[in-house]
Amino acid sequence: MNLYILSLAILLLYHCKREDEPKNEIFGTWKLKKSYTNGKENNLAECRLKSTLEIPDQFSATFTNYYTEDNECKSYIDAGKLYKESETSYIYDPPSLMDQRQRITITQNTLIFSWDSWEFVNGNLVSTPVWEIYNR
């Protein structure tokens, strides 16, 4: 009987320990589903919807971005560093010095990639919020 209770206690402790270990839902491959600019949904071409975000570890992320040029679906890769802000928020630092840091936020099985797009309008520098929605 004591062996049974001891086995049950060890099993419960092991199970509780596994439940307490932090789970990082950010790792893996994410697929682009939607894009918004200034609150309005963008019409994404079939080619653009092939875009993915790969997060292999807590320090890096690689975007494979697809776009249409001359009626051909082409791609480029943008790989940068990740900086954890919280359990659900990261900063993505792209390799180009011209780019700014961008935010990645996780909510259940959805990843939101957001940044401000800057452009000159009538001689004024204007910021426009952009965000993309990725799913597994």
Q: Categorize the overall geometry.
A: globular
Termini separation comes to 47 Å
Q: Helical segment tally?
A: 1
Instruction: Name the helix and strand elements from N-terminus to C-terminus, one letter apiece.
Output: HEEEEEEEEE
Describe this structure in words.
The chain has one helix at residues 2-20, and strands spanning 28-37, 40-41, 52-57, 60-69, 72-84, 89-93, 102-107, 110-121, 124-135. It is mainly beta. A hairpin with a 2-residue loop joins strand 8 (110-121) and strand 9. It is built from 1 helix and 9 strands, in the order αβββββββββ. An 8-stranded antiparallel beta barrel has the order 1-3-4-5-6-7-8-9.
Keywords:
56% strand; 1 helix; 136 residues; disordered N terminus; 9 strands; mainly beta; globular
Strands, helices and their partners?
Layout: H1 2-20, E1 28-37, E2 40-41, E3 52-57, E4 60-69, E5 72-84, E6 89-93, E7 102-107, E8 110-121, E9 124-135
Antiparallel strand pairs: 1-2, 1-3, 1-9, 3-4, 4-5, 5-6, 6-7, 7-8, 8-9
Short description:
By secondary structure, this protein is mainly beta.
